[in-house]
Specification:
Layout lengths: L1 H26 L5 H11 L8 H19 L4 H39 L28 H22 L3 H16 L3 H10 L7 H20 L4 H26 L19
Helix pairs in contact: 1-4, 2-4, 3-4, 3-5, 3-6, 6-9, 7-9, 8-9
Length: 271
């Protein structure tokens, strides 16, 4: 009787652990963006966050979903990709709205300074359908990003449909998905380098990146996963550490005058 009770307790505990692990697998990748999202909403300033991070994760997860048609992988990873795509679209929507509001406020101040009428304030529209590469991924409205994502998905899906019987193409597709995710931190690294500052970037987000990527890479090594998995994981850790070094360097040796915090006008968007 006691043995049966013990077995039931162990079974319930194992099931609980599996549920927690599944939840961590599906939603764990989203957690690092929560503090960044809250920081942008609170400050109404998206300058410190590179939207190319969203581009990298959108491409990586779209390719991973298409890869599943050629080589099956567990459903949890599929849901992970779907939720990550939704999260990146939410981040893009917020950053676009904040950036446009900032540009509009700047124009209004300049027009007021020159005694011009507020009705004359206009912001040049940058549209995806203009196909102007000088404004790629810097469009005026969220719908333009959505059009780009849909266009990329349709083209990639059509190519995958045509070449699905090719083992070389399927393996290449899987590698591109993993490699694109490995390049996740590089847009933020370059953004910090351009700004010569890490102001506006969530340190919590990068710390979560680093801890998650370190755990993932260690898991790949212990389970003897294919070489491209742990190689790309190791590359992610190196980029994360480089960003953390930027945080230390730019805080200790500022490259530009420290900007005074400007109070942003609260709006319905603010928490």
């Amino acid at each position: 009787m006691e043995d049966e009770l013990f077995d039931q307790i162990v079974s319930v505990f194992n099931q609980l652990v599996s549920w927690v692990a599944a939840g961590a697998m599906v939603f764990g990748g989203v957690v690092p963006y929560i503090p960044q999202y809250r920081d942008i909403r609170r400050t109404q300033n998206a300058e410190g966050f590179s939207t190319y991070v969203c581009l990298v994760l959108l491409v990586a997860n779209i390719l991973r979903i298409l890869f599943r048609f050629g080589r099956y992988f567990e459903t949890l990873l599929l849901w992970q990709s779907i939720i990550m795509i939704a999260t990146m679209l939410i981040m893009l929507n917020l950053c676009t709205n904040v950036r446009m509001a900032t540009e509009l406020n700047t124009k209004r101040r300049s027009f007021i300074a020159t005694d011009s009428k507020d009705e004359e304030v206009r912001i040049p529209k940058r549209l995806f359908l203009d196909f102007d590469w000088s404004y790629f991924w810097s469009w005026s409205h969220f719908v333009d990003y959505l059009q780009c994502v849909v266009a990329f998905t349709l083209v990639a899906a059509y190519i995958t449909y045509l070449l699905l019987d090719s083992a070389l193409f399927v393996e290449t597709l899987g590698f591109l998905a993993v490699f694109a995710e490995a390049m996740l931190g590089t847009p933020q690294l370059y953004c910090n380098y351009q700004n010569k500052s890490t102001e506006g970037m969530s340190i919590k987000m990068v710390l979560m990146w680093t801890s998650g990527d370190t755990f993932k890479t260690g898991y790949f090594l212990l389970t003897q996963a294919p070489v491209q998995f742990w190689t790309c994981g190791l590359l992610q850790v190196i980029v994360d550490v480089a960003i953390l070094f930027q945080v230390y360097y730019y805080s200790r040796y500022p490259q530009k005058p420290v900007s005074h915090t400007v109070s942003h006008t609260t709006s319905a968007k603010a928490l």
